[in-house]
Amino acid sequence: MRCYSQGPLWLGLMWLVLLTQGCVGGGGTRETAVDGTRGRVVMAALSEVGTRYKYGAQSPGKALDCSALTQHAYSAAGVEIPRVSTDQREAARPVRLAKVRPGDLVFFRIRPGLHHVGLMVDKTRFVHASTSQKRVRLSNIKSDYWQRHLIGAGTYLN
Fold first, then answer.
1. Helix 36-46 crosses helix 66-76 at what angle (to 10 degrees)?
2. pTM of the prediction?
3. How far is CA 149 from the centre of its chain?
4. pLDDT tens, residue by residue, 14-52
5. What residue ranges define each of the domains in the chain, with the CATH number in brackets?
6. Which residues fall within 8 angstroms of residue 88, CB to CB, at 6 or more apart?
7. How many C-beta neighbours within 10 Å does residue 66 have?
């Protein structure tokens, strides 16, 4: 397995994720830290934060598009998934949005014929290759924009 580094931003994000895993939730219950295959998927995706976005690109650490990011993250954990976001959605086991877990995929329809995919990091944040920001980044799934375009979730994990 390759180790990725994006400098101080990368280290800060990793510490943030590690510190927030297992934090007390809104209902006073303790969430379980992400480990095993789910943890490897999430860490592989987060290791690409800051990587350049380019449509059709599939070079981790250099340039990725949204579905190449999710395919890379799953592959790093030993799970093979389709390359294209619409195929990823079709082949994934559906997950109710209220039940998404770290490592699950979230799917969006930006406009007719334009789809997007991201990977959940926790209950509200997902990592994705952003066309507008031209890089892999974290976003909040509860934002108005993402809620308006969200069409479902799915997983390849247990």
1. 140
2. 0.82
3. 16
4. 545 544 444 333 333 334 468 899 999 999 999 999 999
5. 8-18+32-155 (3.90.1720.10)
6. 67, 70, 71, 81, 82, 105, 107, 117, 154
7. 25
**Do 77 and 47 contact (CB within 8 A), yes or no?**
no
For residue 100, give Cα distances in angstroms to 63, 67, 134, 135: 27, 18, 26, 24
Tell me how far apart the alpha carbons of residues 77 and 3 are, in angstroms, rounded to a whole number. Answer: 13
End-to-end CA distance of the chain: 22
CA angle 19, 25, 26 (to 5 degrees): 140
- In one letter, which amino acid is 123? K
Nearest to 101 by CA among 68, 80, 74, 126: 126
